[in-house]
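Annual report, structural modelling task.

Input specification for the coenzyme A complex:
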Amino acid sequence: MKIIKPTDPDRLREYVRTYVPAGDGAEMICSALAPDTNIVRKVALDERGLAGAISYGVRVEAVRIFSLGSLRKGAGRALVKDVERVAKRRRLPLTVASMASAVGFYERLGFILVKWEGRTIAHMERRGLS
Ligand SMILES: CC(C)(COP(=O)(O)OP(=O)(O)OC[C@H]1O[C@@H](n2cnc3c(N)ncnc32)[C@H](O)[C@@H]1OP(=O)(O)O)[C@@H](O)C(=O)NCCC(=O)NCCS
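The model returned the following structure:
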């Protein structure tokens, strides 16, 4: 799996809207590719093409994942691992406000639950990267 910064994320988003069957993965890929000057957008590519996308921001206190969507097994882990390397280089923790359905995924990758916001959002953190 290759992780890259797409040269034309807006066109890629239109492609996903048009050609990828609707679902949570596709929805979150569109969200990860949405225009925003303060975030970094990256995509995962495999031999079949687009496999997933992630967006994150580098803040003073932490690197924060905003959106993550995967169309194929393994893409989620590869994208989060890529952002972990960014956090590690900066000696910052990595945080995410996760949907309840993805809590198990982030736990599998070493994140711990910090607190729930209502019943739907889980604030999670990956510590010990530096
Ligand atoms: C959650 C999501 C990003 C996971 O991506 P993925 O590519 O399927 O995940 P991976 O295959 O890399 O999974 C890594 C590990 O986590 C496990 N896992 C994946 N999704 C899981 C879940 N929802 N709950 C528990 N474990 C999960 C996998 O089984 C795998 O375990 P392993 O170490 O035994 O192999 C994907 O299902 C998705 O796009 N969901 C819809 C959008 C979403 O929820 N985004 C996150 C919001 S912040």
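The chain has one domain: 2-126.
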